Amino acid sequence: MIRISRVLAVAATEFRMAARNRWVFLSTLVFLLFSLALSFPGVGAAAMKADVLTLASAALATLAVYLVPLIALLLAYDSFAGEVERGTLALILATPVRRGELVAGKFLGLFGVLAIALVTGLAVSTLAAGAVYGFAPAGLAAMARLTLTALMLGAVFLAAGIAVSVAARRTGTAAATVFGLWLLAVVLWDLALLAGVVADADGFFARSVFPWLVIANPGDAFRIYNLAALGDGVQMAGIDSVAHTLPFDPAAALAVLAAWFAILIGCGQILLRRLTP
Amino acid sequence: MTTLSSVPPLLSIEGLTIDFSALRALDRVSLTVSPGERVALLGHNGAGKSTLFKTVLGFLSPAEGSVSVDGAAPGSDAARRSVSYLPEQVAFPKALTGREVMDYFSRLKGAGRADIARLLDLVGLGEAASRAVGSYSKGMRQRLGLAQALIGKPRLLLLDEPTSGLDPVSRLEFYDIIARIAGEGAGVLLSSHALTEVEARTDRVAILSKGRLVADGTLARLASQAQLSMSVRIEARAGRADAVQAHLGGRRVNGKSVIIECDPSGKIALFGRIGGLSEDIADIDVSMPTLDDIYTHYSSLARTEGAS
């Protein structure tokens, strides 16, 4: 029987530890500074067809692809490996708490930290840029869409970080693995795909395989969804140009995020069930 | 204590065998802990003490044999409610206060928070409850671990080397608390790597060696069963060492002394003969077998049995 009270106890403790260790403060500060910087376009922005908030949401989508997975992985890599190293996992698993409750609780606590950082950063930026340039309805919708999907993206990478933390069982190994995962997901994947498109500019790969491989990556799925929703007013380059020529509904990108989350949190559960503390 | 035998044991282990691929970590171990009983589980590092605890907690599955915790299967809801565990060298999150750690485990165990203050006072951490665990001394952390293990009035306490690294005073206080808990009816199984440490603080001693239970009984019984010889060192007067050795046997050391190993049963006869030589003897020193000798005796049994 799943007990919500135990899930909440784990979540509250996880959040409290993150707060004491300054993770809440630091991640909020970093995200706030970056979003503020990107929300105020330089000179020449007036020449664009879209409003400032829409443009800011496009820039922030590109930034969030790097920053949100990084913050999420940094929050999560210690979640189980640290408990194994400190010897507290055996203690916790000796209590009536279910392993599933433990994964759920840790996820919720860390998601709370991430949500505070993302919502604070994006809300403050929206208010600041809106106060200066005006609140266009399309821009507000774009920022709201960005915030919600960034939370989904963060949830995917928190689940990934938790799974890595359970599998690694050592803080050092977990830290190295999440860094590798981050490089692979947000840098190397796109580079490899671009290389493929350059080599096969108008062939089968570029037309039929490439869009699917792009959307299979949660970071790209998040970015493509947000950019596709902005319409033609915003210019895009590189991989992002696929946003205008998708062979499927952009909403499929959200399904990709949901699927990744389900797979990764399930992996964390299964790995923890097989772990002997 | 004699009436306890009629009460069903809180922990009952029968013929337990645990294998880690090629290694047999526990080999047909049988052990019981009854309500109110304090049992010390002794053994070297790697003897299988932690493995035994982990099996009782349901983390490991037996290859053979059975374990029952208060009548329930290890790891089941009922067993988890009955048992409390303090792992060896546990490090609570440094950023949390003692009270927050207790609050967390109370909620995980489904116990009310009303008891937290009482338990912290019991282990002497009432004053430090609001301080971060990071500022605690080693002894305070271990006492917090004990307070945590006492949440929800567990019927069976499993303490894995609870006093290692504690100073003698903290150790005494630790055993005082354990005695009080056992007095209220809980069974306590605690591991240690030294017999000297648990002397007079536990009701029964079980010794594990290389995964096998080589001894199980009261310390007095183990000592008499071991039949360990005592050692008598006799210092002879100048020039009389040869005469003393000729009369009593034994072996010569550093010119003027003779050492004789003697069974407990031959003690009286030996002292009678020594009395006859009072002219030749300057001094006598008797060494009884120590607790460490007893422990070494039982630990080495497994090795000789294993070889046969």
TrEMBL record, chain A:
Q: Lineage of this protein's species?
A: Bacteria, Pseudomonadati, Pseudomonadota, Alphaproteobacteria, Hyphomicrobiales
Q: Which GO terms describe its cellular component?
A: plasma membrane
MF-aspect GO terms? ABC-type transporter activity
Its transmembrane ranges are 55-77, 107-136, 142-167, 179-199, 251-272
Could you list this entry's UniProt keywords, alphabetically sorted. Membrane, Transmembrane, Transmembrane helix
Domain of life (superkingdom): Bacteria
Q: What is this protein called?
A: Nitrous oxidase accessory protein
